[in-house]
Amino acid sequence: MRLILLGPPGAGKGTQAVRIVDTYGIPQLSTGDMLRAAVAAGTPVGLRAKAVMESGGLVSDEIVIGIINDRIEEADAKKGFILDGFPRTVAQAEALDRMLSEKGLKLDAVVELVVDQDALVGRIVNRAAEAKAAGQPVRKDDDPEVFKTRLAAYNRDTAVVSPYYAKTGMLKTVDGMKPIDEVTKALFAILDGARATA
Ligand code: AMP
Questions:
Q1: Distance separating alpha carbons of residues 72 and 78, to the nearest angstrom
Q2: Positive or negative, the Cα torsion across 45, 50, 52, 54?
């Protein structure tokens, strides 16, 4: 099962991806997580990505395409994967199409979590407060002002990715404002449908 989860930052992609990992036994490939790990490890990619990530902007297509190209070659991704946070531009979506076809692979599903963007800022304020209360570090880019920049980057660059997949007939949508368990149920129904036709 090869799946793309789409939706703006704060839509719940990370939360739902964890549940898909548990139920379908495929890894979550989050470019955000991989970039944060590269920043923490101080790798050349991390050094290039750090400032742009902290400001809420987008890391270059070239860097993230390279990361994903290498990551989907790893053993645990052979039986499938969930892409979370990638593709974020049409150029990345086109690069992914090329990458998959060169490897003789295809996507099984593309699902967008549709949310009310005004409500997202409130969600992010909660996420930061919860992390703080649990004694966990608060992501710099979960600061409400930086979050608004991330949302603006989404609307400028990434909102066009859903229509890209709508055109191919692959795009399915789920109401991401519903309670977490209901979102999971709707998502799993789509994945079970995709698996049945695979
Ligand atoms: P995320 O955890 O998915 O919200 O990603 C955190 C940050 O990492 C984003 O705000 C971007 O700066 C960067 N990032 C993650 N994925 C991508 C991507 N596919 N393209 C460009 N930048 C990305």
A1: 7
A2: positive
**Nearest in space to 148 (alpha carbons), one of 131, 125, 173:** 125
Task: For residue 58, give the DSSP letter.
Answer: P
Is the pTM here over 0.85, yes or no? yes
Q: Give the separation between CA 67 and CA 43, rounded to whole angstroms.
A: 12
CA–CA separation, 56 vs 149, rounded Å? 5
Ligand 1 atom with least separation from CA of 150: 10
CATH 3.40.50.300 for domain 2-26+79-115+173-197, yes or no, is yes
Which pLDDT tens digit goes with each residue over 116-129?
Answer: 998 888 878 887 88
Given CA atoms 34, 26, 105, 94 in this order, what sign does their dihedral have? negative
Q: What is the pLDDT of residues 99-108, one digit of tens each?
A: 999 999 999 9
Atom of ligand 1 nearest to the CA of 92: 19
Q: Is the CB of 9 under 6 A from ligand 1?
A: yes
141 touches ligand 1 (CB under 6 Å): yes
- Taking the centre of ligand 1 as the mean of its atom positions, its distance from the CA of residue 125, in whole angstroms, is 19
